[in-house]
Design a protein that fits this description.
The chain is α+β, with helices and mostly antiparallel strands and 440 residues long. It has two domains: 103 residues; 227 residues, Major capsid protein gp5 (Major capsid protein gp5 fold). Helix content is 41%, strand content 20%. Strands 7-8-16-13-9-12-11-10 form an eight-stranded mixed sheet. Strands 1, 2, 5, 6, 14 and 15 form a six-stranded mixed sheet that branches. A two-stranded antiparallel ribbon has the order 3-4. The longest helix has 35 residues. About 8% of the residues have low confidence.
Length: 440
């Protein structure tokens, strides 16, 4: 396998990397906050993953030696590498699932509710369990809430909304790395200067020319309605031991995270957020504001046959240095499986798993956000994105999650039509670049 430029990898590692020892200490610190059996399961899963990764590296090394000696890899070895690669993906999913369950917040822990919040929580619990709305309607009328409407549902308690936000943030890959802003209106408008005021150097007594007025434009991020509809049995609602707030939060987690993840990547902006892949793209050398720049691999539907990993460095250095310190790669699992085979000039693998369960693996010491909605490697696909997504992509959340109880549509089950309003789009077109698997 061709190697990559060693000095360039070193610069990336020095500028952006963190050490494995630091990750290990963070893992130990986090372990103290959760129960021992759960942490033991996570550690066992991580150990199993590391064992499989070592086996994968040995098999891939055999494949590379075959290529060097015979110019072609043995078919049996290639099949073995592919099987081990798939096993790594499955084990990574298991680790991520266990880590997410451990990190999931327990509702009510450490919460000191004020009297109004406590009344709201009690009234909401009564509404969800028995459908009684008088207490909840009275509280929301006193609060003069413009977001509350009996036909559209009632606002969940603030603590429940915070729990939903935390759980979805942990499960949604783009939300975890993007900028997030909460608003109380139907949209968020952000002004920016397309041309700055004129400036220049002058002598102490030289005349100053009249400066021009900067041109201001505006980006608008409207919020769209996202919904989920979990169902419950009467037995579950009658069980006082069941924490209804936590049940709702966990039930809507997957639906919200999946829908958000797809929209933040590919959304067209119609009744959903606009994804960063939906904007017009241009070659980075011809980049202008309002477009997302890209670097081409030079090979349709594949990495280059010679020095394949160099295009990753080209992608990294296509982003200005100010955005690289907090950058992430974004790709799906299939793309990762290809990159996992790349090595540097010293024979070190560029892709490395994290020693902290639930944290992202790294490529050249840069975290990878695994988004399954990213396209696979194919002709002219934008399968990899890189940049500072916290500054580049903005997610807008309108305050308030609503629940409408429906005991009629699916008897004997009770449906809970749960909605939140979310928007999103690119806010800084300099901060994100794409890798195009095409000739140009």
């Amino acid at each position: 396998m061709p190697s990559m430029n060693k000095s360039r990898v070193g610069r990336i590692g020095n500028a952006l990397g963190t050490t494995m020892s630091k990750q290990t200490s963070e893992f130990e610190k986090k372990s103290a906050d959760v129960n021992i059996p759960a942490i033991r399961d996570v550690r066992d899963a991580v150990d199993e993953f590391m064992t499989r990764f070592e086996t994968f590296k040995q098999a891939n090394d055999d494949r590379l030696r075959d290529v060097e000696r015979k110019q072609v890899a043995d078919v049996v070895t290639v099949e073995k590498v592919n099987r081990l690669n798939e096993a790594l993906d499955q084990q990574q999913k298991a680790v991520d699932g266990l880590a997410l369950s451990v990190r999931r917040p327990e509702f009510g822990t450490g919460m000191n509710l004020d009297p109004l919040s406590r009344d709201h929580k009690t009234a909401f619990d009564t509404y969800v369990r028995r459908g009684e709305v008088s207490a909840l309607r009275s509280l929301e009328e006193k609060a003069l809430s413009v977001q509350s409407d009996p036909d559209g549902g009632y606002l969940v308690p603030k603590e429940t909304e915070q729990m939903i936000d935390r759980i979805v943030s942990q499960a949604s890959p783009i939300r975890a790395i993007a900028g997030v802003r909460q608003i109380g209106a139907a949209s968020y408008k952000k002004p920016f200067a397309t041309t700055g005021a004129a400036s220049g150097w002058v002598g102490e007594i030289d005349p100053r020319g009249e400066t021009t007025t900067p041109t201001i434009a505006e980006l608008e991020f409207p919020v769209m309605e996202l919904y989920a509809m979990p169902a419950a049995t009467s037995t579950l609602l009658d069980d006082s031991a069941v924490n209804i707030d936590q049940w709702i939060a966990e039930e809507v987690q997957t639906a919200f995270a999946e829908q958000e993840g797809a929209a933040f990547v590919n959304g067209d902006g119609v009744k959903k957020p606009r994804g960063f892949l939906s904007y017009s793209t241009v070659e980075n050398d011809a980049w202008t504001w309002g477009n997302v720049g890209y670097i081409a691999t030079g090979t349709a539907g594949a990495f280059p046959a010679s020095e394949p990993s160099d295009v990753l460095l080209d992608l990294v250095y296509s982003v200005k240095s100010g955005y690289r310190a907090n950058a992430n790669f974004v790709m799906n699992r299939q793309t990762q499986s290809q990159i996992r085979k790349f090595k540097d000039a010293d024979g070190n693998y560029l892709w490395q798993p994290s020693l902290v369960a639930g944290e992202a693996p790294r490529l050249m010491n840069v975290p990878i956000a695994e988004a399954e909605d990213m396209p696979d490697v194919a002709a002219d696909s934008f399968a990899i994105a890189y940049g500072d997504f916290q500054r580049g992509y903005l997610i807008v959340d309108r305050l308030g999650v609503r629940v409408l109880r429906d005991p009629y549509s699916a008897k004997p089950y009770v449906l809970f039509y749960t909605t939140k309003r979310v928007g999103g789009g690119v806010q800084n077109f300099e901060a994100i670049k794409l890798l195009k698997f095409g000739v140009a």
